[in-house]
Design a protein that fits this description.
Blueprint: E1 10-11, H1 16-33, H2 42-69, H3 80-85, E2 87-89, E3 94-96, H4 97-127
Parallel strand pairs: 1-2
Antiparallel strand pairs: 2-3
Helix pairs in contact: 1-2, 1-4
Length: 131
């Protein structure tokens, strides 16, 4: 076992899997948001929200493309398994890749799960509301 703290592989690049998970969470949020569709101007508001979330996916794609274009090791992309077992460099320090993945993906996934829960409660309350 090496006592050198720099012996682990360390990077400040995210693997493609993280970008895919973020895009999947955004798509999940779009689908959950459309669970609130109903009469009136709701569909217009949901269309605007969907447009904004499509812009988020576009930004994620642009960030991935820029990171790939500026990566000197672009001929050999790092797999998610290698990345998660190594260290991820952040501004202040380093942390394990799997911890960084959770901290990056979890907020958006939690928001999508919450939106799904609200949509289910909304439909249940609307179905059982007194007329």
């Amino acid at each position: 076992m090496s006592s050198d703290p720099n012996s682990n592989s360390s990077t400040d690049r995210l693997p493609l899997a993280i970008y895919g998970l973020l895009a999947g969470a955004v798509l999940w949020m779009v689908i959950a948001a459309w669970g609130f569709a109903g009469p009136g101007y709701t569909n217009v508001a949901l269309t605007v929200v969907t447009g904004l979330l499509v812009v988020v996916i576009g930004i994620l794609f642009a960030l991935w493309r820029m990171a790939r274009a500026n990566d000197p090791d672009s001929e050999r992309p790092q797999s998610f398994g290698e990345w998660s077992s190594g260290d991820f460099e952040i501004w202040q320090d380093r942390q394990k890749g799997r911890n960084a993945a959770a901290e990056i993906v979890l907020p958006l996934a939690a928001a999508a799960a919450g939106m799904t829960a609200f949509a289910i409660i909304f439909h249940y309350a609307a179905a059982h509301a007194p007329v």
